[in-house]
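Two proteins, back to back. First:
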Amino acid sequence: MAGIIEFSGTVLTGPNEERRGLWSVDGRLTFHRPPTSPDAVLGGWVLPGFVDAHCHVGLGPGGVVPDAMAEEQARTDRDAGTLLVRDAGAASDTRWLQQRHDMPRLIRAGRHIARSRRYLRDFAVEVEPDGLVEAVRKQARAGDGWVKLVGDWIDRDAGDLAPSFPDAVVRDAVQAAHDEGARVTAHCFAEDTLDQMLDAGIDCIEHATGLLPRHVPRLAAQGVPIVPTLINIDTFPDIARQAEAKFPRYAEHMHALWERRYERVYEAFEAGVRIYAGTDAGSVIRHGRIADEILSLHRAGLPPAAALDAACWGARTWLGAEGISEGASADVVICREDPRRVPATVASLRHVVLRGEVIR
């Protein structure tokens, strides 16, 4: 049962905003000292619980996983400090996890929507172009305000990446989601897919490895953020090696996208494009790696405070979630050192507190 926790260290209420004097009382944050002594005193640098903005709870390499495995995935993320997950497509209904107070908060996107035989087997609802709009409406109603499209994948006839659906159909699908009150995000590896999605009025881009100078001002002007999933993009060289014999053009393209991954993220950041941290855990990436993604964004050139913002304050604001404020849920992580000066400290958290309960 949540009691009173005193946070004795520096509280980061924003990338460059510090306060002292924070407590959790019955699971809610307050800057006012309670009249009774705390049940626990936790020292260190206090931040909002991390956000994994591209994660797949309930999904494994072969598709659906049993509920026990989904619970283990969520627990692994939680113990690493991820206290809010935007699930970017799951093969199973994970609404039951939302009822668990010991699990991270979960924003679901329903199932991926992909072109028939143009994505990983058993991951997505697969449709032809004439079924895309209806599939989007259905998944918009099944999720928590997000729809996930697979914007491109290898076209085996062309031997390279290609958009999954025609431009006009994508525009109609995005509009259908908006009509249902949902936002749309899309898996986008290739360059041309970004043009298609921006033309359609997309709300977010996942991966964005095909980012070119012509896309950057459009992303900034349209307010479309990117979730680069850099630790997943690190798998591209292996994908290229496996495909080289049969699809040499595709292999060369994937390797080129990998080579410029950091440069493209930094160009977008410098131009004012919003960037959020996502691991893509749940397929080939194991859960609990949000610290690795934050540090990868820093390696790409984002200053430490900006890399943290991608998984903390900015990400929570974008998703409409509480941060560190009076009366907010006590969902915080505590670092041993100031993560803006020692970024690696995010990989060895001192404490994790969820809903006022000390998890670790």
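And the second protein:
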Amino acid sequence: MEPIVRTWPRWAGYAAGAWSLVAVGLALYWAGGGEAGYPLDDGKSVAWLIAACLGVGGIMAVSSVRDVGRQMPRWWPLTGIWAACVLAGAGTFGFVMNALQLAFTGTVDDWPAFGVEVLCAAGAALLAGAALAYQRGTAGACARCGEVHAGTGAVKRPAPVSAAPPGVRRAAHAGMLAFAPYIVMKTTWAFGGSFAGIDGEQVVAEFERNGASGLILTLEKYGLDFTTLSALLGIFLLLGLTREWGQVFPGWAPFSGRRVPRWLPLTPAWLGAVTLGPYGVVATFGYLLPPVIGLGDLPDEPLLHGWSGWTVAACGIGAFAVYGVALGVAAWSYQRRTRPRCVSPGSPGDGAPSGP
């Protein structure tokens, strides 16, 4: 019996349809005046549009695995499913930061909002799977690997181990270097120094006012800022996506010599790309750029004030913008390079002996 994970093209559409029932119900709750987990600040009229888009996406996802999906114009299901997927992906905004806060502190600021982000992440994955299966299947390709081959007796084999192309590696290097000012700033504060006119003691006091956990305060005491540790993990992820050891566990790691499951790096990579990238890019043009060209005011908050506050914000927002885009490029390359190949049993590509 084939494992359920490998049969995802058959059930992804149904799963996405079931997910949409929950998501539409939540959107209708918001449209009716509910507050818990609502991700926007404006009126609830947008919730009706969210419900409509996700509802259409769910219907089209189920249609994609039924005969009716083959009878309608191909672009109908694809447009409906991908539109719902993009909307669900937008709903994951803030997931990575909340997940890191949960890992380091054991809690998040808003549990309902975090629950919505988790729900949106699951929905985006299911909708993307349904769309890919339909897109490949209606194009005459294998829904699992995207290649054209004889379907009878096909088996999946891992792709050859390979490093990312030079262009992708350069993008990854840019993403890693973008974190340098941020790491210097946070490390300086963690050791009690001053950066952009702000002292480390002020930062720790701000942590305490915001209810930071004892773990975070202890790390700060010993010069270890938890966001700096998170940035280093992000750099490690970017390296793994572009190097060969990101596909096969190296000698210095557990499970040495075994294949790295594709979902292990791709899950955090795509979550980081769709949350940090858009946040950084939008904030750069909407928050950092206006004061520079005279179309906006400088930050005016207790800790972040004037050009000093702008500099601090630029170190974080700029890092997220460049890193998020680089992470998306690296994740796309890794996903394509590591996609398993479907081959026929006994062929040279299946790794089995071809002789008697």
